[in-house]
Design goal:
- Helix content is 28%, strand content 32%.
- β9 (145-150) and β10 (154-165) form a beta hairpin.
- It starts with a strand and ends in an 11-residue tail after the last strand.
- Strands 4-3-1-6 form a four-stranded antiparallel beta sheet, with no helix packed on it.
- The chain is of the alpha+beta class.
- α1 runs antiparallel to α2 (62-87).
């Protein structure tokens, strides 16, 4: 949604968890709409309760009663809609990872179509991009196990699984791209190696 940044709760290098609030947009108008919807719903419910006795005594018609009950349902749906609009003013992390970059600060304008407040990266699991010789094209299958060697920075080998095998071979180099997924518990291996 469009709006003004009210607060950014994270900085570059911070760890984030899925569902954690990373930023909020100004939401005074949306919060007021929620409060207004709540008040209208409470009034509609009280109206139904007050008139229920009149309906039992046949002092109001079934149609009038139905209109009041329908108004309560409409007010409930309007409240849900306004709560959703308010929730859209809170930006939460969709993943466990780290903040790679903080792009905007409080007071800056956010455009729904192109603004970025923070850039996050998931580093567990890691995605490993590999350039493989084209001769392995028929041998590589999605889901097959693999081993990753990060020497000299991190000695040893690490288990991984093939996620993507490119279906196009680069004719100039005789290679193809392969993406592996490798567990990184505790984020011990930095991304970008």
């Amino acid at each position: 949604v469009d709006g003004l940044v009210e607060e950014v709760r994270v900085n570059r290098g911070d760890r984030v968890t899925k569902g954690q609030v990373v930023a909020r947009l100004r939401s005074g108008a949306e919060a007021a709409s929620v409060r207004l919807s709540e008040a209208q719903l409470e009034f509609a419910k009280r109206r139904v309760e007050r008139n229920e006795a009149l309906f039992k005594k046949q002092l109001i018609s079934a149609q009038e009663r139905d209109e009041m009950i329908t108004e309560v349902r409409l007010r409930e749906e309007e409240l849900k809609r306004n709560e959703e609009l308010l929730a859209m003013r809170t930006i939460v992390s969709p993943l466990d990872g780290i903040v790679v970059e903080r792009k905007l600060a409080p007071g800056e304008y956010v455009r729904a179509d192109k603004s970025v407040i923070v850039r996050l990266a998931q580093i567990d699991p890691l995605h490993v991009e590999v350039i493989a010789p084209a001769t392995l094209f028929t041998a590589l299958k999605v889901g097959m196990p693999a081993r990753v060697h990060l020497a000299p920075d991190y000695p040893g080998s690490y288990p991984a699984r093939v996620l993507v095998v490119d279906q196009l071979i680069d004719a100039a180099s005789g290679t193809l791209g392969v993406r592996l997924q490798m567990a990184n518990p505790g984020n011990q291996i930095p991304a970008g190696l």
